Predict the structure.
Amino acid sequence: NPAPEPAGVREFEAAARERLDPVHYDYFAGGAGDEITLRANESAFGRLALLPRVLRGVEKPELGITLPGGSASMPVLVAPTAFHCLADPEGERATARAAATTETIMIVSLASTVAVEDVAAAAPGARLWFQLFVQPDMAFTETLVRRAEAAGCGALVVTVDAPVFGTRGRDERNGFHDLPGGLRCENMRDGDRIRPIVFSPAISWDHIARLTEITSLPIVLKGVLHPSDARTALDHGVSALIVSNHGGRQLDTVPATVDVLPEIAAAVGGAAPVLLDGGVRRGTDVLKALALGASAVAVGRPVVWGLGADGERGAVRVLELLRAEVEEALALCGVASVHDLEPGMVRRLRRPW
Ligand code: FNR
């Protein structure tokens, strides 16, 4: 009997877990500290209820969105995650092909195991953005920006929730600190050496201002949780924000992203698109985030689970499952377009079910 096809993101996680080295599974799955925020991201969606409208739906709801860095066929993007070659030998090449097939945006991690140029070459037509941890050596940061531009990336996603690298208990216990067997962070190649990725608490708003000067690519700030920072970001010429807590992998006990989304959306007041990542596992989660003010969401682990379970095909299936779930939930909510969701369609439950 062939194994049954996974019918949801959580089933893909189980399938990936079967196939992956347990140490690598833990690297992908784990979070910082007591993993309180990791769990909260998912459980927060469970405390929100959707309140559908009736008798006003359409045959085929509109799912497409347009963002400063390009358009996507659905409001579900691929969040930047490191080390895809640990999940599938084709690594980020497979992920990029899956993103091309599903016509959505893939944010390529600075810590990808395939160089951004090779990711782009492997997936013609893929809509790529490049994620950056600003390196204190600004000359090297600038070479990274030029490489991303030359590879055709549509935006720079600057991750700002990693002034230091969050300690993850699972990796500590497993002694997982380095990439195995010939794998490298290929974007960190500098001549014939590989630089270590530097996480620096000295990175400041001045660096963001500098980035806007050296590139005409839109800058998307990833990892904003405080409404004041959202406003400061707008003052610095940032084109979009991603409300993110790095999937619970940096500071533990920060709030679930969907719980701070309304405050951030209010602070931004429509001046720039606000995206969200963290804990999105179902189409209904996507609708809740959009209703509460997000223009789109991004998924990190779900794509890794698809990749780990079945390579490129698995990543495609995860993204297509989410699309189908979004489509069905929109129809069931009587909503014609992802742009028509509004806060009144979400109720916060007093007691979780
Ligand atoms: C990440 N994330 C991340 N973010 C980033 O800006 N650069 C990176 O290199 C990585 N690497 C990374 C590796 C792994 C294994 C995970 C799980 C996450 C964070 C990622 O972009 C995103 O914020 C979260 O993954 C979103 O949460 P979910 O969808 O995984 O719940």
